[in-house]
Design a protein that fits this description.
The protein is 40% helix and 22% strand. The protein is built from 5 helices and 5 strands. A 5-stranded parallel beta sheet has the order 2-1-3-4-5, with helices on one face. The radius of gyration is 16 Å and the shape is globular.
Length: 161
C-alpha cells in the first residue's frame, strides 16, 4: 500500500510549502464549482487502486464569503473522510501568510468544525499560513537559480498565475 499526499489547490491559492516525503499528487480545477467533483474523483481513484491518503492539504485562495466557505467545507470533509481510515493521517488547510483577518477567521472556524466531526481521534487537522513565493525566493535565493538543465519550481509557479 503506497502513501499518498494529496494537495488540492483552489484557483489563485499559494503553494502550501513542504507536504512530506510521500508521492505527491496535485489536483487543480478550472472552475471553483468543479473542485469538489475533481477531488472526489481523485480520491476514488486512489482508494480503488489500494493507495492510502496520509496527508491531504487544501490550499485556499483569498476569497471569503458563505458560498466559498461552504465549497471549502465540502472539499475539506471529503479530504477528512479519505484520511480517516488510515487512523493517523493529517488534513491541513493552508492559505497565504498575507491572508485577511476574515479569511483566517473562516478557516479557523472550519478547522474547529472538522475537528468536531472527526471520528478518528488520531487524525490531525491543522491550519497553516504559507509564506508567499516572493518571500521564499528572497529567503532561499538558490531555489530561484536552477542548475543547468533544471527548472525552478518557484519560477514556474510565479509565472503560472
Amino acid at each position: 500500500m503506497s502513501k499518498v499526499s494529496l494537495v488540492v489547490m483552489e484557483r489563485g491559492s499559494d503553494w502550501p510549502g513542504h507536504v512530506g516525503t510521500t508521492e505527491e499528487i496535485v489536483a487543480f480545477a478550472h472552475d471553483d464549482a468543479e473542485l469538489l467533483s475533481r477531488t472526489q474523483q481523485r480520491l476514488e481513484t486512489f482508494l480503488s487502486t489500494g493507495r492510502s491518503i496520509w496527508l491531504a492539504v487544501l490550499a485556499c485562495n483569498a476569497t471569503c464569503g458563505q458560498v466559498v466557505r461552504e465549497r471549502r467545507a465540502q472539499v475539506a470533509r471529503a479530504l477528512l473522510s479519505a484520511v480517516a481510515p488510515v487512523g493517523f493521517g493529517r488534513v491541513v488547510l493552508s492559505a497565504s501568510g498575507s491572508a485577511s483577518r476574515a479569511l483566517r477567521e473562516e478557516l479557523l472556524s472550519l478547522v474547529g468544525e472538522l475537528t468536531a466531526a472527526a471520528h478518528a481521534p488520531q487524525v490531525t487537522i491543522s491550519l497553516h499560513f504559507a509564506a508567499p513565493l516572493e518571500l521564499l525566493a528572497r529567503s532561499f535565493p538558490v531555489a530561484t537559480r536552477p542548475r543547468r538543465g533544471e527548472r525552478s519550481v518557484f519560477r514556474d509557479l510565479r509565472h503560472a498565475s
